[in-house]
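Student:
Attend to each token:
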Amino acid sequence: METFPRCLLQHAQTRPDRPAIREKSRGIWQTLTWRQLGDEVAALAAGLAALGLQRGEHVALLGENRPRLIAATAAAQWLGAVVVPLFADTTAAEVAGPLQLADVTLVFAENQEQVDKLLVLLEQCPRIRHIVFDDDRGMRHYRQPQLLAYDALLGQGRSERASRQAQLDAELTRGTAQDAAAIFFTSGTTGPARGVLHSHGALIDRARAAAQLDGLQDTDVTMAYLPPAWIGQHVLAYALPMVVGACVCCPESSETMLQDMREMGPSIFLAPPRVLEALLTQVTIRINDTGGFKQKLYTRFMRRAEQVGARVLAGEPVALGDRLGYALGNLLIYGPLRDVLGMSRLRVAYTAGEAVGPDLLRFYRSIGINLKQLYGSTETGLFVTLQRNGQVMMDAVGPAAPGVELAVSPEREVLVRSPGLFLGYYGDAEGTRRAWQGEGWFRTGDLGWLGEDGQLHIIDRLQDVGTLNDGSLFAPKQVENKLKFSPYINEAVAFGSGQAHVCAFIDIDAEAVGNWADKQGLSYTGFGDLCALDQVYELIGEVIAQANAGMAADPQLAHAQVRRFLLLHKRLEADDGELTRMRKVRRDVIAQRYAGLVAALRDGSQRGRVDAEVRYEDGRVGILSADVQIREAKTFPPRVLKKAA
């Protein structure tokens, strides 16, 4: 089982009738067994061979999570091709770069929307010979010679499979763990996106490491709901099922995700912090809508959960009264809450992609969800550390995963050696060379330190860390995570390096703040109007004051309390280049685009003027202008918490 196609055929032989993939379509769950998946992949590989796909060529995947996208991945890899998953919500202009950089020759596109992007780019990407589409709605009159229906390709493969079986067997035998399997493009938070080339062996190793640590097996169920272009989605919804034989479920749409998750009851779940924050916001809105007795009951038992929930989950000693109180809370609050979130059957949940705030991690663990951090990057195959059961620390990301070595450079940069490391940046030999420290150590670009217990502590991205005027360390992500724990804050961007104090942009959560404003009887006409309300500024001011009070009790953060803030008049959007497609903040872009507001925050001004470029759904680009209020935030003197007797 050195390659993914070999893993697939192994499962098709040993567990042929067990479910491999479930997809909800038109309200009904459809199941594909391992035998059926193996047959489809073999036929598809024969069809691709008939098209002339060669070992080493690159095949792009452009669409949402669907069984046919998974089958296309395995079929291309069967022939020794390298898959290049791309973000489905990108524009044609954004897709062009990866297609050109990766020298893509064939693309699997989900539907008309994706096909239209590709047809616009054919002159810029002349190496693309074939575009295989799945859903043909709206494409009746398309006549481009590059287009081929998935069903037609599959039918051709079935008819030619027998005659090409010797070729398929030879390619399967020829594949090794060292062969390139996929190219993943980095998020682009610290510069232009780069194509990270991974081998079969590296990705399989990461899946085996996770399975070994948490006892994952073929009875487990996971969800495929995140962008396939993200390596986290690939490892948890493709590599892991291929290694252990688990079942992966594809929800009908992002809008039905929660309901579909409740129906499937996954036992394994992966979510970036952004998803966990959104789920918490939904919970808060629903609780606020109940009011009265139910809200008081929730508040009371959540206070108990915060005190003892994480300790109960970790199996630590807890007083009998606290344990009984928590058990009652589990019956009345925590259990129903887990069910609403679709997490009632979870054995383990992971969060990865960026740093998660301790408050957010503590909340989920307090209600009985075994949420653990994975630390790593696209280059490291998703993770190099994984928190162990019973040893989860809120301010650490866990010890090294099996086979991984960790070190810290004199500059405090985290270094990694691992069998899950990438082969290099495709087409960027110089970038690949700079990524290595020597003797096989990969430079992560993260600032951190190793505890005596082997737990790794991450501070922030090395290039984002600075100092305030008094010389104290300023790590913006630590401050932002404190703020984003509030359901009223969608995103926060903190500034402070080289300054006397910390200031922040606040991107409010329109749904949560709008719900609050409606209950207050406030009138507003849109997002910009909502942000300008004095009452909303007071609400966010209270949230920041609470965060500052918490930071005042932390010696490492007391100096980083937010002194001044403003509410952005527009949402931070990926389409406007302010966020990556995985919803990570592009600090450099925001600092440059809103330079006037940053200056106003720092120089003591009470208002700032901004003219921001926005991209509308129809592709038009406009300028949104506004005068933005700037407010002072309540801060607190540093204090030392007394240790319990």
